Amino acid sequence: MNAPLSQFDISNLFGLPASERYTYFLTEVAQAGKVWTLCGDGGFVAFCDEEGHDCFPFWPAPELARALADADWSDCKPEPLELDVFMNRWLKGMAKDDRQVSVFPAPDGTGIVMDPLALLQDLEEELSQPD
Question: What InterPro entries does UniProt report for this protein, alphabetically (predicted)?
Answer without folding.
Answer: DUF2750
